[in-house]
Structures are given as C-alpha cells and as structure tokens.
C-alpha cells in the first residue's frame, strides 16, 4: 500500500510539473510588459497619432482617416477624434502566437473605425511610427500610425 501511495505522489508531482511547463510555454497569455510591448506602450502613450497608411487587400484606404487624431492613454483608453466627434475605445498590447500585438477596440458603428478593431501584429515601433499588419496571414492588411 505504501508503495502505491508513493507512486501516486510521484505521478501527481510529475503531472503538475508538466502542466506548469505547458503554461509557461504558452505565450497566448503573456503580460503586456514583455520588453518589446513595454517599449511600444511607452511610444503610444506619448503624444497623438494619425493613420498614415491603411491598406486592405491591396486597396489604399488611408484617406478614410484624414482628419482623425488618435490618443492612446496609459490606462488603456483610446480616443479617435475628428472635428467635434470623439469616439472612445480601448487598446492593449500582448503577446500571442509568438508575436507582439496591438489590440484596438473602438466602440462605434462607423465603418471606417470598425476596420481598425483587430489584433494587429507589431512589425515596427519607434517613437514616431508604429507599423502593424493583420495577424491573419490570409488577409493582406497593413495599418501604420505616425506621430502628429
């Protein structure tokens, strides 16, 4: 009986160890403070931004965002303002499927702003430009923000 109990304890510890290792390997739940995301976050919250490029399946839709100013607040709030109209939403960075991502979610029914609602792979981030692409390889969508 004692031998079976000891085997059970060993199996339990091995199983728990495997589960813990599996969770560490799964980057779908990485925090936003990965080094690359921390840098991107510090760039985003510093100033206001404009859409300098949006292409969807090769179609240039950048002009749909003329006049918009985007502000990414440190608390995860996002505002898109054009003239007297302000649309609010949220943003966050995360690590998913091995890529750093920027997730945008604007609360709107505006077709153009809805197009921005997505989880975008971060291709490049500097203090004056953020280049993004759709995280779905089957979609040819690019979004670039430039500091205003």
Helix content: 25-40%
Q: Using DSSP, what is the number of strands?
A: 9
What is the general shape?
Answer: globular
Total helix count?
Answer: 3
Poorly predicted runs of 5 or more residues: 4-32
Please write the string of helix (H) and strand (E) elements.
Answer: HHEEEEEEHEEE
Mean pLDDT: 82
Radius of gyration: 21 Å
Structure in words:
The chain has 148 residues and is an alpha+beta fold. 26% of the residues lie in helices and 42% in strands. The protein is built from 3 helices and 9 strands; from the N terminus they run ααββββββαβββ. Strands 1-3-4-5-6-7-8-9 form an 8-stranded antiparallel barrel. The protein is globular. The N and C termini lie far apart (73 Å). The model is unreliable at 4-32 (pLDDT under 50).
In short:
The chain is of the alpha+beta class and 148 residues long.
SSE diagram, text form:
Elements: H1 2-25, H2 35-44, E1 48-56, E2 59-60, E3 69-72, E4 77-82, E5 85-96, E6 99-106, H3 111-114, E7 118-125, E8 129-134, E9 141-147
For the structure shown, list the relevant keywords:
148 residues, alpha+beta, 9 strands
């Amino acid at each position: 009986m004692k031998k079976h109990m000891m085997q059970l304890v060993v199996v339990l510890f091995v199983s728990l160890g495997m589960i813990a290792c599996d969770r560490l390997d799964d980057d779908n739940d990485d925090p936003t403070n990965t080094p690359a995301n921390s840098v991107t976050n510090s760039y985003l919250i510093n100033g206001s931004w404009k859409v300098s490029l949006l292409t969807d399946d090769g179609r240039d839709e950048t002009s749909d965002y003329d006049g918009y100013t985007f502000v990414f607040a440190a608390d995860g709030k996002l505002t898109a303002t054009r003239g007297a109209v302000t649309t609010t939403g949220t943003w966050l960075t995360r690590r998913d499927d091995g890529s750093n991502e920027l997730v945008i979610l604007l609360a709107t029914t505006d077709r153009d702003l809805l197009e921005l609602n997505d989880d975008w792979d971060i291709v490049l981030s500097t203090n004056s430009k953020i280049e993004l692409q759709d995280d779905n390889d089957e979609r040819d969508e690019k979004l670039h923000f430039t500091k205003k």
